UniProtKB/TrEMBL annotation:
A GO cellular component entry from the record: membrane
The UniProt record lists the keyword Nucleotide-binding: yes
SMART domains: AAA (SM00382)
CDD domains referenced in this protein's UniProt entry, alphabetically: ABC_PhnC_transporter (cd03256)
NCBIfam families recorded: ABC_phnC
Organism: Gemmobacter fulvus
Keywords assigned: ATP-binding, Cell membrane, Membrane, Nucleotide-binding, Translocase, Transport
Pfam families per UniProt: ABC_tran (PF00005)
This protein's name: Phosphonate ABC transporter ATP-binding protein
A single GO molecular function term of this UniProt record: ATP hydrolysis activity
Domain of life: Bacteria
ABC transporter domain sequence ranges: 2-245
PROSITE patterns, per database record: ABC_TRANSPORTER_1 (PS00211), ABC_TRANSPORTER_2 (PS50893)
Length: 269
C-alpha cells in the first residue's frame, strides 16, 4: 500500500532525510522514533507535500504522490490528514466549527467566509465528536478545553476529511501521561475500526512499543531500525538514540513513574 523509495530531502548541503526506503503492505499503525533532528517531521511533511523532496518517490497504492501537481496534489493532501503536537486549532472558535474546518479545502470561498455549513455537515461533525467522547464540548471555545480534549478535537477535524492516512507529528508530546494515553487510544481505535493507516512520530519508546504494529527508527536522516515492537530491544533503542553506555530507557518513557523528566527532556531535546 505504501512504498517509500530512496527519499531524500536536503537543506543546503545537509540531508535532513537521507535516501530512506521502506514498504508497508497494509494500512498499519506505524511509529517513527528517533532523537531530535533525526528527520521525522521532515519525512511526514514530504509525505503530505508540505515540503518537497529532493529525490525519491513515495508510492501510495502504486501512485507516486511526490509527483502530483495542482488538483491531484490537493486531493492527496485531503486524503492524508495531519495532527500536530500543538493541536493547531483556532483557539477562539467553537469546537464544532474547528472540526468543520477539516473540510475547508473542498468548499467554495463564499461558503467558507460566511460559515455556511450544511445541516448534514454539522450533523457529521457532531457525530465524530460524539464518537471521540467529546460531544458535549461542541459549543465551547477550543481554548477552554484541556490539552487532551483539544487533541481529540484535532483528530475529529482530521476525520472530517475522511482521510486514507493520518499523519501525526508528536501528537502526545505536550500532554500529561493520562491524556497521552487517551489520545493514543483514540488513534489506535480509529485505525482498528476504520482501517485507516496511521503514521505517528513518537519520541517515547514505550508508546511506540505499546501502540504500533511497526516501528521505524531514524538517526541522522537514515533508517537504522525497521521492525516490530518486540524487536525493539533496549540495545536497538540505544543505537537509534545514539546514546552512550549511560543510556537509560526511562529517559524515553512517558509513564507516570518516570523518575526524571528534566533528564528526559535534556536527552531528547
Ligand atoms: N526548513 C528547514 N531549513 C533548514 N533545515 C531544516 C529545515 N527543517 C528541518 N531542518 C533540519 O533538518 C533536520 C531534521 O529536522 P526534523 O525537524 O525533520 O527532525 P525531527 O526528527 O522531527 O526532530 P524533533 O524530534 O526535534 O521534532 C534537522 O537538522 C533540522 O535542523
Ligand atoms: Mg519533529
Amino acid at each position: 500500500m505504501l512504498q517509500v523509495n530512496q527519499v531524500t530531502r536536503r537543506f543546503g548541503a545537509k540531508a535532513a532525510v537521507d535516501r530512506i526506503s521502506f514498504a508497508v503492505d497494509r494500512p498499519a499503525f506505524v511509529g517513527i522514533i528517533g532523537r531530535s533532528g533525526a528527520g521525522k517531521s521532515t519525512f511526514l511533511r514530504m509525505m503530505n507535500r508540505l515540503t518537497d523532496a529532493s529525490e525519491g518517490e513515495i508510492l501510495v497504492d502504486g501512485r507516486n504522490v511526490l509527483a502530483l501537481v495542482g488538483q491531484e496534489k490537493r486531493q492527496w493532501q485531503r486524503q492524508c490528514a495531519m495532527i500536530f503536537q500543538q493541536f493547531n486549532l483556532v483557539p477562539r472558535m467553537d469546537v464544532c466549527s474547528n472540526v468543520l474546518h477539516g473540510i475547508l479545502n473542498g468548499r467554495s470561498l463564499a461558503a467558507t467566509l460566511f460559515n455556511l455549513w450544511s445541516e448534514a455537515e454539522i450533523t457529521r461533525a457532531l457525530g465524530i465528536l460524539d464518537r471521540l467522547g467529546i460531544a458535549e464540548q461542541a459549543p465551547k471555545r477550543a481554548e477552554a478545553l484541556s490539552g487532551g480534549q483539544q487533541q481529540r478535537v484535532a483528530i475529529a477535524r482530521a476525520l472530517m476529511q475522511d482521510p486514507k492516512v493520518i499523519l501525526a507529528d508528536e501528537p502526545i508530546a505536550s500532554l500529561d501521561p493520562m491524556n497521552a494515553q487517551l489520545v493514543m487510544d483514540t488513534l489506535r481505535r480509529i485505525h482498528d475500526e476504520d482501517g485507516r493507516m496511521v503514521i505517528a512520530n513518537l519520541h517515547t519508546l514505550d508508546t511506540a512499543r505499546r501502540y504500533c504494529d511497526r516501528v521505524i527508527g531514524m538517526r541522522d536522516g537514515r533508517i537504522v531500525f525497521d521492525g516490530t515492537p518486540t524487536q525493539l530491544t533496549t540495545g536497538v533503542a540505544r543505537d537509534i538514540y545514539g546514546a552512550d553506555a549511560s543510556f537509560n530507557e526511562a529517559a524515553t518513557s512517558t509513564s507516570i513513574e518516570q523518575p526524571d523528566r528534566a533528564y528526559a527532556d535534556a536527552m531528547l531535546g
